[in-house]
């Protein structure tokens, strides 16, 4: 039998503080404790209470999943549950996701989990996945891999170096802020893919996604929606990524394509994956 040794809570707290680039004095001041006491907690000379762990985690903006890890390392039970989207008490979350996705139609919008795996999407997503290799869309499909893979959306992205730089920067930042080894591994994988990078400042207000389609080159701006008050791991780690038209021509083209396809498909929503892959 293999036993996994959990790092002491003090070392974990120190790691999060350093990741946030805070001194002991900065964190102690923000949390309302003495720098001496914080030092004792980090070195193991003092044991934090459950309330202290949660207070420091809040100040350090530690993700809920890792807050549970801190509690376990300190000898306490986890504070945040994790339920699948098919659980009865997650029905409100599922309804909210459907409402948000439907509101964005006919423009593409999708729900992803913390690992950037696709959970569900509206009918508009087909505009972006057209021509993507089927194996990339098999569950659990990773939307960042789909976007940058040579067999994915990448060949159709007119500004691939610029978009790729944006995606890699965002993913790298998330991997650093969360300390998630899975995100770090995904960042290494996607960095090794071809496509180049262009880190120049975009002309507009944000980096657009410019996609070649049968209706011409369409330009989108992405937005992100999250459950800001979630206390369940599954809900907290879900986000809605929507692609809205960056210009009037794109808006008109997408609406035209959607109008032509409306008679061919019944329903506009892909089913929510019951597991939620938290």
UniProtKB/TrEMBL annotation:
A Gene Ontology molecular function term of the record: DNA binding
Organism: Geodermatophilus tzadiensis
InterPro entries: Cro/C1-type_HTH, Lambda_DNA-bd_dom_sf, MLTR_LBD
Region span, Disordered: 259-278
Domain HTH cro/C1-type: 13-67
SMART domains: HTH_XRE
Coiled-coil intervals: none
Name of the protein: Transcriptional regulator with XRE-family HTH domain
Top-level taxon in the UniProt lineage: Bacteria
């Amino acid at each position: 039998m293999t036993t996994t040794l959990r790092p002491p809570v003090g070392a974990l707290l120190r790691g999060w503080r350093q990741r946030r680039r805070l001194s002991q004095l900065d964190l102690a001041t923000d949390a309302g404790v003495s720098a001496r006491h914080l030092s004792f907690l980090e070195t193991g000379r003092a044991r934090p209470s459950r309330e202290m762990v949660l207070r420091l985690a809040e100040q350090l903006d530690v993700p809920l999943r890792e807050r549970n890890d801190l509690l376990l390392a300190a000898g306490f039970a986890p504070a945040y549950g994790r339920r699948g989207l098919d659980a009865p008490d997650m029905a409100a979350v599922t309804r909210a996701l459907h409402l948000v996705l439907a509101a964005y139609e006919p423009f593409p919008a999708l729900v992803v989990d913390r690992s950037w795996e696709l959970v569900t999407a509206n009918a508009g997503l087909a505009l972006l996945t057209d021509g993507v290799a089927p194996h990339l869309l098999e569950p659990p499909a990773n939307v960042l891999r789909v976007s940058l893979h040579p067999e994915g959306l990448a060949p159709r992205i007119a500004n691939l170096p610029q978009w790729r730089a944006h995606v890699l920067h965002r993913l790298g930042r998330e991997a650093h802020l969360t300390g998630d080894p899975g995100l770090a591994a995904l960042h290494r994988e996607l960095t090794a893919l071809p496509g180049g990078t262009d880190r120049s400042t975009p002309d507009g207000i944000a980096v657009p996604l410019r996609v070649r389609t049968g209706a011409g080159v369409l330009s989108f701006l992405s937005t992100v929606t999250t459950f800001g008050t979630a206390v369940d791991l599954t809900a907290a780690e879900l986000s809605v990524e929507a692609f809205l038209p960056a210009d009037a021509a794109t808006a008109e083209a997408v609406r035209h394509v959607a109008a032509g396809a409306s008679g061919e498909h019944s329903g506009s929503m892909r089913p929510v994956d019951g597991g939620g892959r938290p």
